[in-house]
Amino acid sequence: MRRTMVNSTHVSYFILSAFFDTGVFKYLFFTIVMCLYVCIIGANVLLIVVICVNRSLHEPMYLFLCSLFVNELCGSSGLFPFLLVQILSDIHTVSAPFCFLQIFSVYTYANVQIYNLAIMSYDRYLAICHPLHYNTRMTCTKAAMFIALTWFFPFLNVVILISLSASLQLCGNIINKVYCDNFHIVTLACSDTTVNNVYGLVYTCTVIVALIILTFYSYMRILRVCFSGSKQTRQKALSTCTPHLVSLLNFSFGAFFEVSQSRFDMSGVPNMLRIFLSLYFFTFPPLFNPLIYGLNLTKIRIICKSLLFGKV
């Protein structure tokens, strides 16, 4: 039996109100989501294996890509199994501990993705704008250190974020989404949320903005080299940067849709469209990034062809 815990300070479960009765179509939606999840797992695992087992790919750029693919696997696994269960269920509830576990998974995915894309843009900046010094400025040891930091800081940030949210006294338990979201939980609070708001604002205005500036600066310098260099330099720069730019734009669109849904009134938008835009963030980057890099980066493409179709 569903009930909203009004004037309560302890919430044992949350109701995901964005789900609606789809009748027999729920089996169709289940099949579609399952196929997407299998494709995401297959594509990302394939490229992780390719990079790990081939010593010729043990270079900083490919190590950053491996980190990117691992993160996409973690983020997808934090959402899709839960989503598949909810699609077939008639009661769309989730226990509070599991809800916060899902928040940890999806928020870590989003944060690590931002760090990864920023570091990858810096790596391409060094390779294209300072090619003679690249091997000394970006060694595999430094790349491993950067990767460790891109996981440690988001992990620490999300742990603090969830700790602040878990300590709040809540007056409701209805989340108007198809998965658990920290912002919506904070809006349910009866107690003072000043600390949560200040922490989120400071983190966004310092760390996130700094990473965006680093990414923007790196690509501006790369574009400058593309327009001022020779045709050969321009072609080489574009061939290595195009996948990164497409990946960055894809993630940015997903992040924009997700932030818009959390911060603005979307009641006038059809429910199916809202769900699609909400899931875009966790579906399209993990699905298309392996395809983008696998098709555009020559070394990865050749090794993938040899694995899938035999010697080429």
Automatic annotation (TrEMBL):
<dbReference type="InterPro" id="IPR000725">
    <property type="entry name" value="Olfact_rcpt"/>
</dbReference>
<keyword id="KW-0552">Olfaction</keyword>
<keyword id="KW-0472">Membrane</keyword>
<keyword id="KW-0325">Glycoprotein</keyword>
<dbReference type="InterPro" id="IPR000276">
    <property type="entry name" value="GPCR_Rhodpsn"/>
</dbReference>
<feature type="transmembrane region" description="Helical">
    <location>
        <begin position="27"/>
        <end position="50"/>
    </location>
</feature>
<dbReference type="InterPro" id="IPR017452">
    <property type="entry name" value="GPCR_Rhodpsn_7TM"/>
</dbReference>
<dbReference type="Pfam" id="PF13853">
    <property type="entry name" value="7tm_4"/>
</dbReference>
<keyword id="KW-0297">G-protein coupled receptor</keyword>
<keyword id="KW-1133">Transmembrane helix</keyword>
<feature type="domain" description="G-protein coupled receptors family 1 profile">
    <location>
        <begin position="43"/>
        <end position="293"/>
    </location>
</feature>
<keyword id="KW-0807">Transducer</keyword>
<keyword id="KW-0675">Receptor</keyword>
<feature type="transmembrane region" description="Helical">
    <location>
        <begin position="100"/>
        <end position="122"/>
    </location>
</feature>
<feature type="transmembrane region" description="Helical">
    <location>
        <begin position="62"/>
        <end position="88"/>
    </location>
</feature>
<dbReference type="InterPro" id="IPR052921">
    <property type="entry name" value="GPCR1_Superfamily_Member"/>
</dbReference>
<dbReference type="GO" id="GO:0004984">
    <property type="term" value="F:olfactory receptor activity"/>
</dbReference>
<feature type="transmembrane region" description="Helical">
    <location>
        <begin position="277"/>
        <end position="295"/>
    </location>
</feature>
<dbReference type="GO" id="GO:0005886">
    <property type="term" value="C:plasma membrane"/>
</dbReference>
<keyword id="KW-0716">Sensory transduction</keyword>
<dbReference type="GO" id="GO:0005549">
    <property type="term" value="F:odorant binding"/>
</dbReference>
<feature type="transmembrane region" description="Helical">
    <location>
        <begin position="237"/>
        <end position="257"/>
    </location>
</feature>
<dbReference type="GO" id="GO:0004930">
    <property type="term" value="F:G protein-coupled receptor activity"/>
</dbReference>
<keyword id="KW-0812">Transmembrane</keyword>
<feature type="transmembrane region" description="Helical">
    <location>
        <begin position="198"/>
        <end position="217"/>
    </location>
</feature>
<feature type="transmembrane region" description="Helical">
    <location>
        <begin position="143"/>
        <end position="164"/>
    </location>
</feature>
<keyword id="KW-1003">Cell membrane</keyword>
<keyword id="KW-1015">Disulfide bond</keyword>
<protein>
    <submittedName>
        <fullName>Olfactory receptor 142-like</fullName>
    </submittedName>
</protein>
